[in-house]
Specification:
single chain, 114 residues, 2 domains, 6-stranded antiparallel beta sheet, 4-stranded antiparallel beta sheet, 54% strand, globular
Length: 114
Amino acid sequence: LGTRYWEAKSALPLQIGEVESVPSFKGYRKVNGHPEFHYEVNGVDVYELIEPLHTGLGIRRSFRIPNNTGLVRLAVDSADGVVAAYSAGKLKEGVLELRDKQAREFTLTHQLAN
């Protein structure tokens, strides 16, 4: 599998709405050789594509939540030597918050610092 550079610390890293909900795994498919996971959180479909970065060491997590209409929270766990960046939303105390349409498609990258 390779060297582990980062792993989520939170047991429930992605939350949709105001109530914490355990995700329900629905399956996965391969997109250009990379896994796209499908799960449901609080009754809402979530798709997460995980790909290696083309430059540097790290991963890009591309999220699609096509029917989102509320608040989405994603824990952005930091680790020594790993830099996180995001395409939308606001980071508040280690949690990325996205609202409504903003959360329908966004990316989060985790990259080893030089």
